[in-house]
Design goal:
The protein is an alpha/beta fold and 132 residues long. Helices cover 42% and strands 19% of the residues. The chain is built from five helices and five strands. Strands 2-1-3-4-5 form a five-stranded parallel sheet, with helices on both faces. Helix 1 links the parallel strand 1 and strand 2. Helix 2 runs parallel beside helix 3.
Length: 132
């Protein structure tokens, strides 16, 4: 899990992003890119940990892969939204089974993106969802 100093930044508050993906290299690269664009980012490899982090970090947007080693991304989003109902969510995956796509729609996930994800498109979705 990445750690940030929430007290460190000066100026307007930065939008907080929670990234969840089981590919460490992708997770690290995306976190670096998003931090460069001014977002406060925390990342994790597992859905259960994402639920715990969200309770403390209070993200504006969660970006999660569908396929995670413990719980799937739709379940993680559902559980996070039990604590943070207005949190925005972006689901990213190389393949999302039909039933999972139906669950994602029922969960009112804000965007579903296919891997390999285009960084400019992801940045655009995040900007739209984070309100900045």
């Amino acid at each position: 899990m990445e750690h940030i100093d929430l007290e460190r930044s000066s100026g307007p508050p930065r939008a907080r992003l929670l990234l969840v993906d089981d590919e460490p290299d992708l997770l690290s690269t995306l976190a670096e890119i998003l931090e460069h664009h001014g977002y406060a980012v925390v990342s994790t490899l597992e859905g259960e940990e994402a639920v715990q982090i969200a309770a403390l970090f209070e993200p504006n947007v969660v970006v999660t892969d569908y396929s995670l080693p413990d719980i799937d991304g739709v379940t993680a989003i559902h559980r996070i939204r039990e604590q943070r109902p207005r949190m925005r969510a972006i689901l990213v995956s190389g393949y999302i089974p039909g039933e999972a796509r139906k669950r994602a729609l029922a969960e009112q996930i804000d965007a579903i993106m296919e891997k390999p994800v285009s960084v400019p498109e992801l940045l655009s979705e995040i900007k739209t969802r984070a309100g900045r």
